[in-house]
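Need tokens for this chain, all 694 residues.
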Amino acid sequence: MLCPVFLRELRDPVTRLRGAGKAVAALLARMGIYTIADLFLHFPRDWDDRSSWIGFAEAARAGTRAHARATVVAHEWFGYGRMKTLKLRVDDGRDEASLLCFNRAFLERNMPVGCSVVVTGKFGLRYGELQSSAFEIEGLDGEGEGTVKSGLLAVYPLTEGLAQGNVRKLVAHALADYNRHIEDELPPRLREKHALMAKREAIRAMHAPRDAAEALRARECLAYEELFFFQLAVAQRAHSRAEVAVPRRVPKGILRSRLASRLPFKLTNDQEKAVAEIVTDLGTARPMARLLQGDVGSGKTLVAFFAALEVIEAGGQVALMAPTELLARQHAETAAGLLEPLGVRLAFLSGNVEDAARPPLLGAMAKGEVDLVLGTQALFSDAVEYRHLRLVIVDEQHRFGVLQRLALSRKGPMPDLLMMTATPIPRTLALTVFGDLAVSTIREMPPGRKPIVTHLAKAGNEAKVYEFVRRVLALGQRAYFVYPLIGESTKLELKNAEEMHAKLRDELFPGVPIGLIHSRLREDEKRATMAAFKKGDIRILVATSVVEVGVDVPEASIMVIEHAERFGLAALHQLRGRVGRGQAQSWCFLVFSDKLTEEGKARLKAMLETSDGFKLAEEDLKIRGPGDLSGTMQSGALGFAVADPIKDLLLLEEARIDAFALVEEDPALLSEASHPLREVLRRAPPFGEAAAVS
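Here are the structure tokens for all 694 residues:
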């Protein structure tokens, strides 16, 4: 996401560099490196401090990397046939160590017995000797240090077949031949304000720092630049929306009052506040752009219905889009019970609506004979037209891409936008992708809800969990069993929904009606199964993560998630939120295998310690890093080459202030095609795509 100035010289292929023949170029291409600019932006993941000598044993005791002058004292071999591997025995003057030369048999020739070398690597005590299999070795010229580099050396992400030395040499050649062509993109006054290095110096210092302080300073400069240009795109979106005037007919709120009077309960304070904020937005001259976030079961959908009634009473149409047909149909059923008695004309549209029913439905929408249409991505297909679409509601917005949301919003003349999420957005990410949106937050849960009790169970102890489930089922309650796979996998030894459905039905809970639901079933089968589970004709529902959203069965009080370590923290929290929706006490059992990664342990520990979705969102961000909340990808990093919105929060806030101030001061940034900053934004695809939301 870092924006290089794409001068012709920086677009030169890497093959222009000495040492970058066809074979090396093919290896670089695996890492997305094709041009000089790509190579400059392939930053080190770390730096090796080779400013002092550290012996093998000393480094092993301290857990650091050794950097020692040594002598090769012997060549040995172990293994047989194709697995035969060279072992170099080296002596640093105090201790001997073994270098395991996997796929490096050529070192027998290059490093003969008796030669002087410098060895750098991580050592440990194995099989009674100091060993290293991940090391660098360089020959010394007699007793001198030859060409061995000292100080800080870059450690790059690599691909198989490419060594650190290869990349370092290529980068050194690139810096010598092309670094002078790098120009600054940041406005000079911002570079002066924050005392930032020139970009060519920052690039050089990232790859070849003089010391650790310079490397950190270079990283901070480039991180600020990335965050600034990201925030500039966010500021552009906000400014563009603020410039649009929307004609309004402000209703009296009669439909909202009627819905409130029909509810058998009172809205929570947070719900009332959210409704008031949305109604205020809908009364202003500019289009609304608001994010409604709240924990699982906090009542966001009801708030969205109040928003829809405000628009419908003013003569507009509303479209509510959900990521799955299961969730969309649940919203439609809820709307039918709450809104149809008020005279609201409803429709449901998905890809599975029968062909015969589709033309009259589309015709009614185009004529304005439908007030609220609920559905899936089918709502923004080419054939769909609206007479007066004034409000777009996107539920579980993180499951949709930017372009999908944009396609739906283009169905009307700059409609208002309400995005909802049950995965609370941490403050750091709210300042990035959603920095141009107003945010309403629902923290209060409806009264009467009991906290869900969460237990961890190690694989092998499932019998205790199953016995507990039997006791709760005997009380008339229902249970979910969730698995990471639909069917058997040839690659993963995991329990799957299809096999466990049969086992639970035939062996573990004989006589208990058990259903199965997953994404490969037809929609009518899924609907029938869910209806039976809601009625109580099915007591145990075996599923995959398809039930993560869109399932509301108050009588279900037990959630068993097997291989819980295979699920992300947000998914675990969403699944746990499927229970605890009634008055009865509810439980969630997280069954995990003994093959736990550190990240898996952190997720399960977080689930055990809190049920607060906001705290879990922050913890999830710490564990896995920022997801791509711009929505063009459903997972993965935001695409920053250097910046980390978590660690660089202060930089992020500074960049945000600077970017919004610049757009406010310089409206030409939005209109002049020749503006240099506009040109920089145009060249950076992630920014350009994000800006398209406006």
